[in-house]
Amino acid sequence: MSTTGTGDTILVIGAGGQLGFELTHELRQLYGASNVVAADVRLPKHPELADAGPFVQLDVLDKAGLGAVMQRYKPKQVYHLAALLSATAEKNPKFGWELNMDGLFNVLDAAVEHGTGRIYWPSSIAVFGPNTPRDNTPQYTVMDPGTIYGISKQAGELWLDWYYRKHGLDVRSLRYPGLIGYKSLPGGGTTDYAVDIYHHAVHGLPYQCFLQEDTYLPMMYMPDALKATLDLMHAPAEQIKIRTSYNLGAMSFSPREITQSIQQHIPDFEVTYQPDSRQQIADSWPKSIDDSRARQDWGWTPQFDLGAMTADMLKHLQEEPQYLAPLTAEAK
Ligand code: VAH
Description:
Pfam families: Epimerase. This is NAD-dependent epimerase/dehydratase family protein. It is a single chain. By secondary structure, the protein is an alpha/beta fold. It has helices at residues 18-31, 48-51, 63-73, 86-91, 93-114, 148-167, 193-203, 222-234, 255-263, 278-283, 292-298, 306-319; strands spanning 10-13, 36-40, 55-57, 77-80, 118-120, 123-124, 170-172, 174-176, 178-180, 207-209, 217-221, 246-247, 251-253, 271-273. It has a 6-stranded parallel β-sheet, sandwiched between helices. A 3-stranded parallel β-sheet has the order 6-8-12. The longest helix is centred in the N-terminal third of the chain and has 22 residues, at 93-114. (3R)-3-hydroxy-L-norvaline is lined by residues 85-86, 124-126, 149, 176-178, 186, 189-191.
């Protein structure tokens, strides 16, 4: 399916990822499927992405290819979500830096050239590091990220602000906590356990967690993440006072607590703990986030706590098996 830029077009780069898939679905509901162009370097894992609306295969590092897509669709908004996440980027640091930074520069420069109205780019709590106050981490504080992902997100935030000041680009960003949803699997982050654990539970399988049971991390259910993203993008420009990226929170929990919340529904569910290299990353991140500026500037309020998320996740995974991960042999 294809469409030409109607002036209402929205481009989602990285539409095949965990957030991108759900955000594309939400945007298509809101703006009409034919007005939301899904772009990803890989062909869709989910047929819906290309069946429900226009899809283009696009490598955001290909400036000419990006320019051609911008020229063809003339999007009024661009959501640039393509990136290597924390654990993956540590295994491939130079490419992680190249994709996360050069990809961002290509999108920002294309937006200036094509006069794009609004640009969304996700940051992360990964911008904080071992010397950042870990409880109720403030909007402005010490930021010494120890991962390439976190370094690229911290640098990217500062570039967003520079493009806002120097080019008047309406760039907007959120420092997401770990995101959990049932429709799409995470892509190589340190918080992926919090999604994998539900799929194991619904399969009736034990889960081996790669973080220690008392590792507290800020987390958010996907409906809240989608609400925050759209609330931010729909807010009048004068309400957006921070052009690096807003702290965003909803809840914090540990592997032990999410296990207990699942066991209230599936009592015989069992979890063992086998920390790996991701434990070090998790130990350098905040335990909880002060998102008072997001609440003050554009009215952020989360809806889901751990209990409500677990009930919703298990219901959907049990009733909609198309979303249930086909666990590989070694995972069983
Ligand atoms: C990651 N899911 O684990 C991402 C996120 C806060 C974590 O940025 O890398």
